Amino acid sequence: MPGGPPPWAARAHQRDGGHPLATPARVAIVGTGNIARYHLQALRELPGAAEVVAAADTDQDRLAEFCAEHDVPQPYQDLAGLLAGAKPELVHLCTPPGLHVQQALACLAAGSSVLAEKPPALSLRELDRLASRGPGAPWFAAVFQHRFGSGARRLRQLAGAGVLGRPLLAVCHTTWFRDQAYFDVEWRGRWDSEGGGPTMGHGIHQLDLLLSVLGDWAEVSAIARRQARRMETEDLSLAHVTFTSGAVASVINSVLSPREETYLRFDFERATVEVTHLYGYGDEDWRITPAPGCAEAVLPAWRAGEAGVRSGHRAQFAEVLGCLAGGVPPPVTLADSRRTLSLAAGIYAAAFAGGPVRPADLGPGSPFYARMDGNGVPW
Ligand SMILES: NC(=O)c1ccc[n+]([C@@H]2O[C@H](COP(=O)([O-])OP(=O)(O)OC[C@H]3O[C@@H](n4cnc5c(N)ncnc54)[C@H](O)[C@@H]3O)[C@@H](O)[C@H]2O)c1
Asked: How does residue 178 score in pLDDT terms, banded at 50, 70 and 90?
């Protein structure tokens, strides 16, 4: 990682009372399917920061193959056994979304902090079951890896410092493609196990990044459709979002788009900032266009900003492990996750019950607090 030691190195130093060879964090992976392999690889790319001590899966063949292939020493048939036997400091939840909250509660009760894959919960009600926890360890954080590339960090830094002026307009398009076979996996495309379609499962990455730049949302209008896939949930949604800052955004979440693209665009008073990528970006994927007369105000600051870190699991894990070592809760906090999940709930509420919807409309009295499909979908 350019620009000096990685963030966890300094904090590992702190945790070890100043000894330069701090102990790697004891990490366990629960759910050894598709995304777990990315977790394992990303952790191994941060040598000295983490040691994967155990893994668990209810599918014994998959677990055995995963542990053998990646030299994970302790396989467990279930989470309870893993928590009691391996006593990990941090558990990565790579299980289907419907299990995240119940498994997180078990980890926290056993004293292990949690990094849960997206979406962190199926509903706001479910997420709020985690909210009674106070600050400090053990903590709960969610995987939203596209906050962590240097391009997004640089944008947030410049936007926060006022260099770009007021945010006016944003575009947040997740136009991806998933065929029918993808949704034929048991837990996908169902309200009870995935929580929603591309709004919850795919576009949620971009919603999270959008919110991390523009802050709290104030109102949303939306439509959601099931156009082409055989499943319970939507296969596309479109939304107009107003932020408390007054900025407005156009959002598309699709899994029906043969030419796949992830596109976010932020029009500030003094510059347009764009990123175009698919499943992860580097610095080269970002573009800044100053407004007439604003080049000197924005371009040197943009060029001097953070650089060199691709978005992805590794970038997020470096930050998470640094915070673990330093004894502070990492991003993405429960409050951050709640804001992202509330925008997803707002999109569904606006689409299925009629908009516009505000955050205050999504309290415990709303059917969309308990389920993303509220009282049911129109198809
Ligand atoms: N951040 C990203 O870019 C990204 C990408 C893909 C998937 N994901 C998320 O990762 C999670 C997993 O997705 P996936 O594609 O790897 O799914 P998957 O079906 O490939 O893997 C899930 C694994 O969990 C195991 N499992 C099920 N119940 C279990 C239990 N009670 N205890 C332990 N293990 C259990 C399954 O046997 C399976 O091996 C989902 O939340 C998904 O949304 C995130």
From this structure: very high
Determine which residue's CA is closest to atom 5 belonging to ligand 1.
35
3-class SS of residue 173: strand
> Are 163 and 187 members of one domain?
yes
Kindly state the tokens that stand for 87.
Answer: 């006593």
Are residue 115 and residue 197 in the same domain, yes or no?
A: no
Instruction: Name residues contacting ligand 1 (CB within 6 A).
Output: 30-36, 56-59, 62, 79, 94-97, 99, 117-118, 143, 145, 201
Strands 256-268 and 113-116, how do they pair? unpaired
Q: How many angstroms does the Cα of residue 6 sit away from the middle of ligand 1?
A: 28
* Minimum-distance ligand 1 atom for the alpha carbon of 145: 1
Q: How far is the CA of 72 from the centre of ligand 1 (A)?
A: 18
Q: Flag whether pLDDT at 148 surpasses 60.
A: yes
State the Cα–Cα distance between residues 214 and 244, nearest whole angstrom: 9
Q: Are residues 160 and 91 both part of a single domain?
A: no
Q: CATH number for the domain including 65?
A: 3.40.50.720
Q: For residue 263, what is the enclosing H or E element?
A: strand 256-268
What's the pLDDT at 18? 38
Residue 134 CA from chain centroid, whole number: 21
State in Å: Cα 95 to ligand 1 middle: 4
The model carries a pTM of 0.94
CA of 117 to the centre of ligand 1 (A): 8
Residues 41 and 101 in one domain: yes
What is the C-alpha to C-alpha distance for residues 339 and 334, in angstroms, rounded to an integer?
9
**Ligand 1 center to 241 CA (angstroms):** 30
Q: Are 90 and 113 in contact (CB under 8 A)?
A: yes
> CA 1, CA 147: separation in Å to the nearest integer?
17
| pLDDT at position 162 over 50 | yes
Domain with 254, as residue range(s), is 147-305
Q: Stretch 176-203: mean pLDDT, rounded?
A: 97
As for how many domains the chain has, the answer is: 2
CB 39 within 8 A of CB 95: no
DSSP at 204: H
Mutate to test the pocket of ligand 1, among 101, 117, 187 (most ligand atoms within 8 A of CB): 117
